[in-house]
Amino acid sequence: MTLEQLEQRVHELERQVAELCRELKPLAPLGSVQETFGMFAGDPAFDEIVRLGHQYRVQANSQDE
Length: 65
Known about the structure:
- The chain is mainly α.
- It contains three helices and no strands.
- It has a domain at 1-26.
């Protein structure tokens, strides 16, 4: 890769990062525990995360034995 190609690539990456930064919306601060408790109830993606975490722990513990 030539220096000119590298500079073009860096310039394009900087442009993409700037575009992504403009699209980001600030996160609202989380409230109290009472406000956040249950926020993932019924979320299939969260259920999958829990399942995979359990699967990983079972596998990791069986390797320790």
